[in-house]
Amino acid sequence: MAALAAICVASCKDKDFVNTGTTIKEHEYIGKAVGNFSADEWYPGGALGTTDNVQSGCYEDETPAVTNQGLFTAFQNGEASFERNFTVDTKPFNGLGPAYLRSSCLDCHPGYGHGKRQSSYPSKFGNGCLLAIYHPAEPSSNDGPYISEVTGMPQTNASYPFKTPLDGEQITITWTPVSAMESGLPMQFKDGETYGLIYPTVSIPTDAFNTDPQPSDIEVRLESTIGIIGTGVIDAIPQDSIIAQYRKEAQFVELNPRFWDKEAGDMAATAWYSLTTPGRYADGTSTTASDKLLKRYTYALTRATLQDGPGANAIWNITNVSRSDRHFLYTTNAWAKAMSENKEVIAAIKANPESPYYADGTDEGIAAAVRTLLSPGTDQFDNEYHNFSPEMDDDTYYNFLVWHRGLAIPRARNLQDKDVQRGKGLFLAMGCAACHKPTWHTGPDNYWAPESIGGRQLPRYANQTIHPYSDFIQHRLHMKNDIHGSWCRTTPLWGRGLSFSNTGAEDRLHDCRARNEVEAIMWHAYSKESDAYDSAVQFYNLPKEDRDAVVKFLRSI
Question: Which phi and psi angles does 153 have, rounded to 5°?
């Protein structure tokens, strides 16, 4: 920033910069076609999904759709659920626990963005790290089923008197420099500039698990939270358009067979998400048990709609706060058993007759109550699940859905800059847009929503031209200590150029291993098996001024 300020003092030309990287005369170009950018590319989320604010804090802005639909008050109230710490008994943010990951959503999404790279695991602001703990299909492999002793998003906190399912203090994260690229590419560009790559390894001792049984033969991979801006606009893309993209890419690259059936030339059965929660569409029609939507959210493509997606799910399983459509706990039988047999837990409950676990006050009665109440049952939608009184009311949950679907994407910057225009041309010429597809068109946005919100409207993004720079399909980069499952959804690039001013960090990729754009690109070339190897090699061969232009383009969209 100091260097840019010095430039401003030295010369008041079109290339002058302010602290956002925006030229003084940029206002003359905003909303107009310029160079190889169309007029609508200034507004990546479309007219209804983009904020003109590009200053620090812009990730928190509401979309014009929120304002147009008279939903601003609901948006603000929903924002409180994201930012406030949940507690055990302080309304309206009560219900925390008995086991949980974080007490606040904001802890994982600093400044509403991507999580920050961490060197230790214990909970703290900015730690968006989540653990994928699994039984490897073969030694040290990235694939294998999740362990059953802890939840899929392992919990490292618990309410008194319970012990944490997993002791975060015993988790070790080690960052290791890459000494050589598996592909054979030098770690120095031809003009002499070097780059460095690092990757994380995670180790967890057996006694860190307060479960019975304790897991063995495990591998761990680190994943960080995804930025949440613009996710409501993504929900408005017609699934037929995404299916067409699968068909197009399947001609040239191997796709995950869990989502694309190569023999049938169509979507695989596991690409569809079953709507098991009662709900209705925006046009008022009710959903049925047979209704399915195409998965498009999370690294692993586990969710199909934002209203039953990462945020709606996380407001329950991160804090373990129940609601009317999720009236059960996010726990495991192994943890419930261990807590029912823990002498310290039993003694603490015995000393408190007001405890809901007190039962008849005997050791045996307390143990039975603990095991029964903490056990989640056999299936998420099975009647064996214990029906607890909802801790989050439907009005609060509705406000949260308005907020989550109402987060805007910041306007693009510097599109009139010749370097940015050259960077876009190079990005397209290298084939990066094959996966980071620039442009999509939303449909009527007949979104799905849970019945619990009573048909109240959510922000809607019908018939918008948007520029997320993602195909919403999974690919493989074959990185060292790769993501669990090896396949990872193409992350949207829009708005990421403002990450530092909003979150204080610029870490990229699924586990924050890339410290800047150059490292993120070069990870695409770590292995010749990478789906993006050819494009990344082309970037490697560019002269420095062109590499810088590509980075400048990525920071502008």
Answer: -110, 90
Supply the angle between the helices 394-405 and 310-317 in degrees, to the nearest 10: 140
Q: What interhelical angle do 363-374 and 333-340 show, nearest 10?
A: 170
Distance of CA 557 to the CA centre of its chain: 19
3-state secondary structure 265-305: CEECHHHEEECCCCEEECCCCECCCCCEEECCECCCCCECC
E strand intervals along 97-160: 99-100, 129-134, 157-158
Residue 194: what are its φ and ψ, rounded to 5°? -105, 165
pLDDT in tens, the chain (557 residues): 343 333 333 333 333 333 445 555 889 999 999 999 999 999 999 999 999 999 999 999 999 999 999 999 999 999 999 999 999 998 889 999 999 999 999 888 999 998 899 999 877 777 888 999 999 999 888 999 999 999 999 999 999 999 999 999 999 999 999 999 999 999 999 999 999 999 999 999 999 999 999 999 999 999 999 889 999 999 999 999 999 999 999 999 999 999 999 999 999 999 999 988 899 999 999 988 789 999 999 999 999 999 998 889 999 999 999 999 888 899 999 999 999 999 999 999 999 999 999 999 999 999 999 998 999 864 333 445 566 789 999 999 999 999 999 999 999 999 999 999 999 999 999 999 999 999 999 999 999 999 999 999 999 999 999 999 999 999 999 999 999 999 999 999 999 999 999 999 999 999 999 999 999 999 999 999 999 999 999 999 999 999 999 999 999 99
For residue 265, what are the contacts with CB-CB under 8 A and spacing of at least 6?
247, 250
pTM of the model: 0.92
Which string of DSSP letters, residue by residue, matches 406-472?
TBPEEPP--TT-HHHHHHHHHHHHTTGGGTS---EE------EEEGGGTT------TT-EE-----S
- Cβ-based neighbours of 379, under 8 Å, separated by 6 or more: 385
Please state, in angstroms and rounded to a whole number, the distance separating the CA atoms of residues 338 and 370.
Answer: 10
**CA of 292: how far to CAs of 49, 270, 289, 491, in Å?**
26, 11, 8, 23
Q: Are 410 and 50 in contact (CB under 8 A)?
A: yes
Q: Which residues of 522-551 are buried (b: 16+ CB within 10 A; e: fewer)?
A: bbbbbbeebbbbebbbebbebeeebbbbbb
Pairing assessment for the beta strands 279-281 and 448-450 based on DSSP bridges: antiparallel
> Cis ω on the peptide bond leading into residue 410 (within 30° of 0)?
no
The domains of the chain are located at 1-30
What's the CA gap between 151 and 129, in Å, rounded?
A: 15
Do 95 and 322 contact (CB within 8 A), yes or no? yes
User: Is residue 425 within 8 Å of 438, Cβ to Cβ?
Assistant: no
CA-wise closest residue to 250 among 264, 235, 260, 240? 260
Coil vs helix vs strand at 547: helix
